[in-house]
Amino acid sequence: MLMKVTSALAPSGNGIQAEALVLRRVDKTYDGVSKVVDALDLDVHPGEFLTILGPSGSGKTSLLMMLAGFEAPSAGTIEIGGRDVSRLPPYKRNIGMVFQHYALFPHLTVGENLAYPLQARGWRKSDIAERVDWALQLIHLDGMQDRRPAQLSGGQQQRIAVARALIYRPQLVLMDEPLGALDKQLREQMQDEIVRIHRELRPTIVYVTHDQSEALSLSDRVAVFEAGRIAQIGTPSELYEQPGTAFVAGFIGENNRITGSVIAVTTEFCHVRCADGAIVEARNIADVRIGDRVNLAVRPERLRPTQAGDGSSVEVEVADITYLGEVSRVRCRMRDGTEIIWKLPNCGQSERPNRGATIALGFSREDARAFAA
Amino acid sequence: MNAVSPSRAGWALVLPLVAFIVIAFLAPIATMLLRSVHDPEIADLMPRTRQTLARWDGIGVPQMATEAVTADLREASATNQIGRLAQRLNRERNGLRVLIDVTARHLEREPDTKLSRIDPGWSDPALWQILARVTSPWTGQHLLNALDLTVTPDGAMVRQEEARRLYVDLFLRTAWVAALVTLICALLGYPYAYAYAMAAAGPSLRALLLFLVLLPFWTSLLVRATAWIVLLQRRGVINEGLLAAGLIGETGRLDLIYNMTGTIIVMVHVLLPFFVLPLYSVMAGLPTSYVRASASLGAHPVRTFARVYLPLTYPGVAAGGLLVFILSLGYYVTPALVGGRTGQLISNQIAFHMQRSLNWGLAAALGTLLLLAVLLLALTLPRLAERGGLRA
């Protein structure tokens, strides 16, 4: 069966592989003044899973609406598979789209829902039946074609919505927070399902979400959106390990933020006097100068207990300890009141600090990143 | 617990409304339903006859009842009720008024004369059949009349003679007109509701569309009818316009009002909002994601409309259509004003029997049948629509 799947979906062999999606200086404004999407450039490779990650209001939904053709860009061009689609209506774009609330047609059966895009493309009846069977097998819902969407669970409905958007092998599949309506456990199952389908069929997917763990676990690359621009684009580990801006550092994963001012600079690193007087060393990634005020970002799991004055370290008072199983989450406070989170791995014998104790937490200079404040 | 329980407080609050509904709505309807089968007028005027004939086997001329009739007629004369009785009986058979008047006057002069001597009519067994039937306070006669049926002297139920068949045709005509009005409302109202639902972008256009659809609601029925008369009459705006444009000749003026055409035109105008508003509410409640999903899947807007939008708005069409159809079935004022002679519906006939012929029993029977038809439709149609999968 898998053989049939792969052969049915082998990429068309015209030799030239254009980028799946190219955006050039795309603007979107609704009032002519404030830009919801601002001079956006973006390239998505064929077969890539790209996630647009951003808080609400960052412009990611407007971008998706422009990709689908429900909104026209105010300026710039959008190319899908080498074809300029900026002014094409949605139904001529050969895209697939998965909506947050599934948007399965409630008056049609599962089979009719899956057949819908094929009928719209004028497929022959026998071919449609064959492909619908194939799609149902792909999502492990064989034999469900005569059910109505309302008779299925949320997870099943979303799988059908995914299959419906993939069944005609569109050049680009857009997913608009497709797991937003599901509960946590189902969401994780569906993530695995989407990853599996992506591995099997290799469609180009642009996935929009505000959930950073979803973005990290699903994507080949993630574009972090901030105020209509891409703050940073890269693989999940790049974004996590080397956030380029304070916003990305704060948005992806958890990060401690310590304010201070620069007192010495080398090519790659800088020394920073923290608000409470401690002097620490950090990566200088924002090209800061002596005297600049900076924010240091340090991951909670990169902290370790140490002796005061030994390397980069800060002195904190333990405010609160939460036992979480594999880690303990220790909430501390620096003398100036800055809150520091420390994730203490549970290795069996590690002694946990007492509440109210004053301890020193150290970190290597590789793990602290200094951003201009 | 010294506080009034919330449910009891709730009941106290709805009590005035319940009382109002019972007094102003349920009680009159119950009275009307009862009147269609219960008619004690003759029974009260001829109590002895009623008692005697209740025991009669229905064959020949019941000699035992003649004394009772004599006594009842004398009493009716004495209490000045004979005119009423004569008129009432005449409705059962033409000529009975004369028979009763003659007999009563004769009995005043010679109280002990035998009935058959006064008038040979009293020897007709059919007369006694009628008397036996009408002196019973319970009667199916009005319902039979309303269905153009009658009972022969030997008790068989047959259709009325052709010339007296009125009501079945009228019921059918009313249903046909209601269906036609509903269809026209659907053809005019669906695009209108669609335009209204799609006009989300321009608030002023939306307000204008709503204003236009509600305008008929805010205008007096008489004003509207008059406006239509001005437009549609033989020397009205439309005929003069067509004439001026050379589309019709002087002899070809169109009869647009005071007939069924007028009734239908004005009814559509009055009932259109009842179609548009429920349909609009369904359209407005339809998530845009269905239409967008269809477009994203490659469907041309025409296909999207036919396969997705239209089926998903059927519940609104069904709701609006049912409302218009049921309202049309009972429509009275508009046909009365602009229907002329040929544009009358069943309600106008009911009004005629209430106000002119004073045959309340028949009016009640016609009303009962109409009410039953409407109830049947209101109960079955939504369920049929549901089974047809029209509920999204």
CATH class of the largest domain in chain A: Alpha Beta
Helix fraction bin of chain B: over 70%
CATH architecture of the largest domain in chain B: Orthogonal Bundle
Termini separation of chain A: 56 Å
Q: Percent of residues of chain A in helical segments? A: 10-25%
Number of helices of chain B: 19
Oligomer category? heterodimer
Strand order of the largest sheet of chain A: 6-7-8-3-9-10
Largest interface (CB within 8 Å) is between: A-B, 26 and 22 residues
Descriptive account of the structure:
The complex is a heterodimer of chains A (373) and B (392). Chain A is an alpha+beta fold and 373 residues long. Chain A contains 9 helices and 20 strands. The N terminus of chain A is likely disordered. Chain B is an all-alpha fold and 392 residues long. Chain B is built from 19 helices and 2 strands. Chain B has a two-stranded antiparallel ribbon with strand order 1-2. In chain B, strand 1 and strand 2 form a beta hairpin. The radius of gyration of chain B is 29 Å and the shape is elongated. Chains A and B meet through strand 6 and helix 3 of A and helix 15 and helix 16 of B.
Entry keywords:
heterodimer, A: 373 residues, alpha+beta, Rossmann fold, OB fold (Dihydrolipoamide Acetyltransferase, E2P), 2 domains, six-stranded mixed beta sheet, five-stranded mixed barrel, 20 strands, B: 392 residues, mainly alpha, MetI-like fold, 3 domains, two-stranded antiparallel ribbon, 71% helix
Describe the SSE topology.
The complex is a heterodimer of chains A (373) and B (392).
Chain A lengths: L1 H7 L12 E9 L5 E10 L4 E5 L6 H9 L6 E6 L2 E2 L10 E4 L11 H11 L4 H14 L15 H13 L5 E5 L7 H18 L3 E5 L2 H7 L2 E6 L2 E6 L1 H6 L4 H6 L4 E10 L3 E6 L4 E6 L8 E6 L5 E3 L6 E11 L3 E8 L4 E7 L12 E5 L5 E5 L1
Chain B lengths: L5 H30 L5 H5 L1 H8 L8 H16 L3 H9 L5 H14 L5 H4 L6 H10 L6 H6 L2 E3 L5 E3 L7 H32 L4 H16 L2 H12 L4 H8 L15 H26 L2 H9 L4 H29 L3 H6 L7 H10 L4 H28 L5
Helix pairs in contact in B: 1-19, 3-4, 4-6, 5-6, 10-11, 10-14, 10-16, 11-14, 14-16, 15-16, 16-19, 18-19
